[in-house]
Every structure is written in structure tokens, then in C-alpha cells.
């Protein structure tokens, strides 16, 4: 049987490289890269295009291919599990065999990767309704596997399922202490990918930044 290795060993893609400092025998903080500070988040929120939410017609998760290959037998999901976990080890197939994951949405900690989902901070269906329906499939794949910004995060599976495709005016993380961070992540993703926000969403994000 192959000797277990840390899941970070051998990750060579650009997306994987972002994770290297996040999980090397230290307690991991499950925050993705690129989260703006409050001032930056407020400035980005002010620049977002306000528009009514578009139609869900034609949406299908398969139009956002994931999880993509990140090199060394690792896909995007496994790369995020490595980044957001503590003392993660895996076999040669890159799937975790041990580790712990603390979900910032609810504060719970898990030791089985099956109890952890990789959340798209801005859900794929929301992205579709706010601009991504006009993208190419290749661009939607980059969005669904975005390791460079705060779009992917490891969280408790049932909390992620409760969130579904809801925007912040409809759903917020159970831990109110995380609202500022969550809003900052959401805003940055919409800003970077030039997605729109509606009035209720904009107001909710503004209110959440007041928690900073």
C-alpha cells in the first residue's frame, strides 16, 4: 500500500500553489485567498452594477464544469480540502485519508472529508442569473474552479445544502461573526467576475459589512 503523503506534496498547478502556506502542520484557517478588507469591499460594492436578477432559464450545473484537474492527480475539490484542512494526508489518488476541517460558516469541525462540501461562495445558479449565462463554457469552468480568489471554501455539508443558490438577502452563515468576511468574499467574487447585484442583495451586503 502506498505510504500516505500530505495532500500538499506535489501540487504544482498555479491554483494549488496558492495553498502551500495554508496547511503545513499548523492549525488551518479556512479562509480562501484574496478576501478584501472592509474599505476595499465597500469600494468594490459601490462599483458593482445594480440590476434585477435575470432568468434561471437554461441553467444547468453541467454548464459550469467542475471539479477540474489541478495536476498530480488532484482536482479542485481536493486542492481546497488541502488548503482549508489541518494535517491533511492523502494517498496517491490525492483523496484525503486523514485530517480535520473547521467550517467557518457554523464553527463545527469534521474529520471525514465526506462531511465537508466545497462551497461556491457565489453559487453557480446565482452567477448564471447575474451574468454568467452569457459566458462561454470555458469561462464558466474557470469561475467554478476559481482558486485565485475567495470563491471556494470548505464548509459543513448540510449548511452548504441549506444555502443552496441563495443570495445574502436570503441566506447568511449561522455564525454572525463571519458575516463581514462572507460579505467581503461575495462582493469580491462579483467584482472580479463582473456579475450584477440586485437591490435586496446590495442592501444585505452593506448591512453585513457593518459587522466588520
UniProtKB/TrEMBL annotation:
Domain of life of the native organism: Bacteria
Keyword entries, A-Z: Signal
InterPro entries per record: GmrSD_C (IPR011089)
Signal peptide: 1-22
One Pfam family this sequence matches: GmrSD_C
GmrSD restriction endonucleases C-terminal domain mapped to chain residues: 100-205
Region (Disordered): 50-72
Protein name: GmrSD restriction endonucleases C-terminal domain-containing protein
Taxon lineage: Bacteria, Bacillati, Actinomycetota, Actinomycetes, Pseudonocardiales
